[in-house]
Amino acid sequence: MTLSTTSLMSSEQFLLELWQQNQAAISRTLMASEADPAARQDLKQDIFLALHQSAARIQSAELPRAYLFRIVHNVTVDHIARAKRQQWQPLDEDHQQLLVQDCPSAEVGEQQQSQQLMQAVRRLSAANRQVILLAMEDLDAPEIAEILQLSQGAVRVRLNRAKTELMEIMQNGR
């Protein structure tokens, strides 16, 4: 059963399937935004609640996955804004190690490279971090444009800037 058969599913079934198909991507996005596992769990719950509240709109959306990631993006941005207002402490080395150990991307490369990539992604400007995280989840420019409510051209520009900034960080340890 795919999400294209939405008319045959209840809203709950549809949301559950959408959630299950994208849970790993959501987790990776949250890991890049929040170091504290308890706060990540709270964010997941907030996202699922927002999904439930928007069930009818998501089910009728042309790009349900893009709509899902828009919700993930909005909830995460709100969380980051609250954290900045509360002046959270920087991520310590122990938590960074935990992030890399929990991250599925650690299986792809060596642990050190994964850790360096996560640290570099965290150093990106907020706009560049948003677009690169979505691109890393294999979302294309139209989907990212829908999520961030930008034009596709603006998304392509941001992606290029994000890649450039990420390469500079990785090469220079900025």
Question: Secondary structure elements and their pairing?
Answer:
Elements: H1 11-33, H2 37-53, H3 55-60, H4 64-85, H5 93-102, H6 111-123, H7 126-136, H8 141-148, H9 152-172
Helix pairs in contact: 1-2, 1-4, 2-4, 4-8, 5-6, 7-9, 8-9
Compact description:
This protein has 174 residues and is mostly helical.
Explain this structure to me?
The chain is mainly α. The chain is built from nine helices and no strands. The radius of gyration is 17 Å and the shape is globular. It starts with 10 loop residues before the first helix and ends with a helix. The model has no long low-confidence stretch (mean pLDDT 80).
Structural class: mainly alpha
Number of strands: 0
Relative strand content: under 5%
- Output the radius of gyration: 17 Å
Dominant shape = globular
Distance between the termini: 46 Å
* Succession of helices and strands: HHHHHHHHH
Low-confidence stretches: none
User: Mean of residue pLDDT?
Assistant: 80
* Main β sheet profile: none
User: What's the helical proportion of residues?
Assistant: over 70%
**Number of H/I helices:** 9
